[in-house]
Write a structure and sequence with these properties.
heterodimer, A: alpha/beta, fumarase, five-stranded mixed barrel, 8 helices, globular, B: 288 residues, 60s Ribosomal Protein L30, Chain: A, five-stranded mixed β-sheet, four-stranded mixed β-sheet
Chain lengths: 193, 288
């Protein structure tokens, strides 16, 4: 198990390989569909410092606001990442992001971005909403809550020992590609095509 | 018994308390994986998450899905009163964080913030002869919904003809294409026949069956068993990490088709397979 703390350097991230299990700590940012569209189309600066050498989490959480106005995460597993494929590599390079957490893996364009700008794809366990929310120690701030709604807002959160697996690295390795190729071969044998 | 609070409890149970039949097959899947394999640690995380969610009464998965209700009621009841009770319960469940706000206007992208919108929650009514009310709820996650598929037979690339052999081929193709994206291991619901709309409705209704429940028609029961074996040979595994369990079960059902049409609709639900049922009999509520 590799312990990783934000900020993460280019050198550190390039040491990671597909299959490595990681415990991630530090301040990360949730962003999904509307957030990615915004980051590519308008390149806003409000999120720049939070993203630098940090990690984006593809997640639309269930959140709670205390009577004192303090936010906390109730359930917060990963959402499907492939929807961000058109945007991801541009976002990684524009904001010097060192990693993306999601589920299901991403495509060739993102894989190129990981190589070019020094980043990896981390897989969290989809559906494990309650368990992952327990690793979120604090909500630091939130952007675009009114405009985008709870699931789509940028939540800036501090996590401690978030359990992740590297499934795409910065050297072109992808567990998703590997499993797709193997399972397609098996399916072709079963289907006799 | 107050209808609206009984429905709120139904939502709470569906979102936070995984049914025993599903938890049991997830435990069996954990046992089957080899020590040290990533698949084993995924199942370990899944099972621990299920326990924590039940204990804390918090959502198993943050995507608490689309709310789909099937309501069977005796003659003389008003649909309006059920709709009002469901809407109240959905708003309250959102306030209590049993549900994430999941109703978005496609025109302006606005989230209604309380799960209420046009056709949301989705209610399907059915009047029956029994002197009791049954309300069934499915919380259908978006990621797994996106990997559902509908095929029109024959399918040339798969050499899938208009028979159960062809049906088997397109189901294997759909699960192969889904890979880990629908939060594998999934449960597969298949609706054969009908039209574009009713084949999907039939496929989704399968999710109210219990794991292991086989179709009474032998040909279909055999197909379910064969598909379960074939699909688990694919090696996609939990989350698509590779492993011995790719699907938890397969349910197949048919309806008559138009001579010109042969639709096969495949609905996929993630491992967080959330559905609950409540029955109101003589003013008493029971949950299953």
């Amino acid at each position: 198990m590799i312990k990783l703390t934000i900020p993460i350097s280019d050198e550190e991230i390039r040491k990671l390989k597909v299959g490595d299990e990681v415990l991630l700590s530090g301040v990360i940012v949730t962003a999904r569909d509307q957030a990615h569209k915004l980051m590519v189309e308008e390149k806003p600066d409000f999120i720049r410092d939070d993203l630098k050498e940090s990690v984006i989490y593809h997640c639309g959480p269930v959140v709670k606001k205390s009577p004192e106005g303090v936010w906390s995460f109730v359930s917060a597993g990963p959402t499907t990442s492939i929807r961000e494929e058109p945007y991801q590599s541009d976002v990684i390079c524009e904001y010097t992001v060192r990693g993306v957490i999601g589920k299901g893996g991403m495509g060739d364009k993102t894989a190129e971005g990981l190589k070019k700008c020094g980043a990896v794809y981390f897989h969290a366990v989809g559906g494990a909403g309650t368990l992952i929310a327990n690793a979120v120690k604090m909500v630091k701030t939130v952007y675009k809550l009114e405009e985008f709604g709870t699931p789509e807002a940028f939540w800036v959160i501090e996590v401690e020992d978030l359990p992740l697996v590297v499934t795409m690295d910065s050297h072109g390795g992808s567990l998703h590609k590997e499993i797709l190729e193997k399972s397609t071969q098996i399916a072709n044998d079963i289907l006799k095509i | 018994m107050e209808l609206k609070s009984a429905i709120l409890e139904l939502i709470r149970q569906a979102a936070t308390d995984l049914s025993p039949d599903v938890e049991k097959v997830l435990s069996q899947a954990y046992e089957r994986e080899d020590k040290g394999a990533p698949a084993k640690s995924v199942f370990d995380t899944i099972l621990e998450n299920v326990r924590q969610a039940r204990e804390n009464s918090t959502p198993i998965c943050q995507d608490t899905g689309s709310l789909i209700f099937y309501i069977d009621f005796p003659e003389g009841h008003s649909e309006k009163s059920y709709r009002e009770a469901v809407n109240w319960a959905a708003v309250e469940a959102t306030n209590l964080q049993y549900l994430r706000p999941n109703a978005v206007d496609p025109v302006n992208g606005k989230n209604s913030g309380n799960n209420i919108g046009i056709n949301a929650p989705f209610l399907q009514f059915h009047q029956w002869d029994k002197d009791e009310v049954r309300i069934r709820l499915m919380l259908k996650g978006g990621g797994s919904e996106n990997v559902g598929a509908q095929y029109k037979l024959p399918q040339a690339p798969l050499k899938a003809g208009r028979d159960l052999k062809g049906v088997r081929k397109v189901i294997i193709d759909a699960v192969l294409k889904a890979q880990g994206l629908g939060c594998a291991p999934g449960v597969i619901g298949v609706g054969i026949g009908g039209d574009r709309v009713t084949s999907y409705i039939l496929s989704k209704k399968q999710f109210f069956k219990k794991i292991g429940q086989r179709n009474p028609r032998k040909e279909l029961a055999d197909l379910e068993v064969e598909l379960y074996k074939d699909l688990n040979k694919l090696g996609i595994g939990p989350m698509g990490f590779g492993g011995k369990t790719t699907v938890l079960d397969v349910f197949v059902e048919t309806q008559h088709r138009h001579p010109a049409c042969y639709f096969v609709a495949i609905s996929y639900t993630c491992w967080a397979f959330r559905r609950k049922s409540m029955t109101i009999r003589n003013g008493e509520v029971s949950y299953d």
